[in-house]
Amino acid sequence: MNPDRFLGLDPTPGDLRAADEVTKVLRSCVVALSEGRRRVEHTARPDGLWQGAHAAAIVDTLTAYAGRLRALEDAVVDFLQAWQQWRHGIAGRQDETAALVEAVTQLVDGPVDSADPRREALLRQAGALRDRHQIAADQTGAAAEALIAATTVDQEGRDLPVDLQRGLLALEAAVEQWLAESAADLRHATETISSVTKLTAVVPQLVGVAPGSDASPEALRIAAAAPGSHRLITALHRGTPERPAEELSDASFASEVRAEGALADRVRGAPHAGDLEGETA
Amino acid sequence: MTVLMAQVDIDVPPDFHEVPVDPSVEDRLLGQTAILDELSIADPAQREGLGWYLEALSRSVTAGAVVSTAFCAVRLGGTPSSATLTVAVHPAAAEDPLVFTTGAARALLTTGAYESVAQENLGRTLAVVARGRAIGDDGLTYSQDVTVVVPVAGHRLAVVVSLSTTDLAHVATYEAVVRDAAASARVLT
Fold first, then answer.
1. For the purposes of burial, counting CB atoms within 10 Å of the CB of A41, is it exposed (0-12), middle (13-18) or buried (19 or more)?
2. Where are the domains of chain A?
3. Bridge pairing between strands B79-91 and B157-165
4. Chain A residues with CB inside 8 Å of B176's CB?
5. B8-11 and B17-18 strand pairing
6. How crowded is residue A66: how many other Cβ atoms within 10 Å of its Cβ?
7. Is B171 in the A-facing interface, judged by CB distances under 8 Å?
8. Between the CA of residue B4 and those of A54, A281, B7, what are the distances in Å?
9. Contact in structure between B53 and A206 (CB atoms under 8 Å)
10. What is the CATH code for A3-171?
11. Which residue(s) pair with B5 in the sheet?
């Protein structure tokens, strides 16, 4: 179909396939913006990691950034809706153009008469259709202008990257200072914990609950300096038979035990632990 | 059971037996006897050996930043299970929790002793959660460790709680214990 040939103009130009491609791109933009905004909001959430005085400026900047992303997302959604309306309108109007071309074709098949009032009427309809198409195009253009305005950085507004960088640098400086003052102490504390843990781990072995029959060098070292060292070293070397599970109590911190206990309490009619909250002795 | 250490207090499940570290020998002996009774250890030789070891351990714990160590010997999932829980108090030169946990996470990372180090929000406090494991002579994992470091709100203090278990089937359960314990850290008034 070539509307120019029959109507002298194409009243409804538009590439539907290209319009669909634009729709696809706009949708992916909305998804990306939404996902990015949600990530920023998640990072700056009240129960997140950014707590304390140094975090406040960073959270404030991230919140403002999330707000800008939200505004941009809304603007793209608005434009997408306008674009989809435009695309839907193109299809309908191009159908009307096809009908007009068909009608003119019927006239051409008959005797050619450029002054045929029926032809004049069809051409007027084509002109009106072109005007409607142009109005729709202008509306879409206005929506595009609104999108451009939303994406334009306000030079007078907050410079979020600079604010974020300032907050992060302040945090970094405070962390560096903390590391200089306290890191060695913390590392020493964890090393000491590790040594004590190895020593304490011998106790469950002596109870017969943990694997390990050979006395550890650390345990023998403290045994050598302890009261009753000879008997203790003998005991450490002797090893302990494995203790049967039946001789041990169920762990109170196992979730399944908590559940069973609560159920058992209710079967017996005993008050549940949660029921006692708020009671005083 | 509540573990008392200096002026800081944390809540630990009652299954964990705190190694007595009282300055008085009599008090330590009473505490050691109570543990032996709670564990229903009847064999005289085993009682004696364990008693001597608890005493030797008490004398080793009191040095350095470690303020308490405890162990449990329980039935978990129908099988014997044990873990140790060790607590240290560390002066933290920062009241800002983010500064503290970021610094502490970096400090622990540089030790190379942990497989993973992460900053987390435990609900009541920010924390650093570090996980590591010990490999046995056979090349297999022998024990799993979870260390949680938390700042004590309103004080220039941090608490380090470390749990180690050879029960690899219940690491998640024990991790919940150490997280809860660390999150409960508070200064006694």
1. middle
2. 3-171, 194-241+256-280
3. antiparallel
4. 253
5. unpaired
6. 19
7. no
8. 32, 23, 7
9. yes
10. 1.20.1260
11. B8
pTM tops 0.90, yes or no: no
Say what the ipTM of the complex is: 0.91
The predicted structure's pLDDT at residue B187: 83
Q: Which residue has the tokens 């035990």?
A: A257
The structure tokens listed for A159 are 């410079």
pLDDT digits (tens, 9 = 90+) for A9-20: 899 999 999 999
Nearest to A63 by CA among A87, A44, A90, A48: A44
- Please indicate whether, in this complex, the C-beta atoms of A253 and B15 are within 8 angstroms of each other: yes
Contact A215, A236 (CB under 8 A): yes
- pLDDT, tens only, A230-247: 888 888 888 777 888 888
Q: Is the dihedral of CA A15, A16, A19, A20 positive or negative?
A: negative
| Alpha helices (H) in B43-96, listed in sequence order | 44-61
Q: Indicate yes or no: CB of B103 within 8 angstroms of CB of A240.
A: no
Residues of A in contact with B158 (CB under 8 A): 186
**Tokens 């991790």 correspond to what residue?**
B175
Residue among A163, A179, A168 at smallest CA distance from A54: A168
Which residue, among B37, B62, B72, B138, would best test binding to A if mutated, counting the most A CBs under 10 Å from its CB?
A: B72
Inform me whether the C-beta atom of residue B122 falls under 8 Å from chain A C-beta atoms. no
Q: B126, A206: Cβ pair inside 8 Å? A: no
Q: How many CB atoms lie within 10 A of CB A274?
A: 7
> Are A243 and B80 in contact (CB < 8 Å)?
yes
- Confirm or reject contact between A204 and chain B (CB < 8 A): yes
Subunit contact A52:B120, Cβ cutoff 8 A = no
